[in-house]
Amino acid sequence: MIVAGFGYRSGATPASLHAALAACETTPTALAAPADKLATLTSLAEELGLPLIPVSPTALSAAETQTNSPASRAARDTGSVAEASALAAAGPDAQLLVPRRISPDRMATCAIAQGKTA
Asked: Which domain holds residue 65?
């Protein structure tokens, strides 16, 4: 499974999410985000025909990220919400394929992880 994990500000638009995903230059098989922010990502998941995986706060803080954003650390107890979402959703022993990419408007981030299972 190849998961695109997202982190985004409350004012993020569908264009912000598309741009962050496009910056990763990888086609995912699922999308993931913090469970309390899934509503914003629903339309992108439906448009792409991909499942949407909610990520718990515990899973976010447990994931080891390459990026260490002070804002993400303060808000979600992780260095990168996008990276942590992708890694947690991809399952145990997942590997980060694409570290956090930021949309041009700086409203959304996306990272790609691959899990060991199909």
From this structure: 2-114
DSSP β-ladder status, 30-34 and 2-8: parallel
> Coil, strand, or helix at residue 81?
helix
Query: What string of DSSP letters covers 31-68?
Result: EEEEGGGHHHHHHHHHHHT--EEEE-HHHHHHSPPS--
SS3 98: strand
Q: What is the CATH number of the domain that holds 98?
A: 3.30.420.180
Helix (H, G, I), strand (E, B) or coil at 5: strand
pLDDT per residue over 18-33, tens digit each?
999 999 999 999 999 9
Whether the Cβ atoms of residue 2 and residue 30 lie closer than 8 Å to each other:
yes
Give how many domains the chain has, as a whole number: 1
pTM (whole model) above 0.85: yes
pLDDT in tens, 59-113: 999 999 999 999 899 999 999 999 999 999 999 999 999 999 999 999 999 999 9
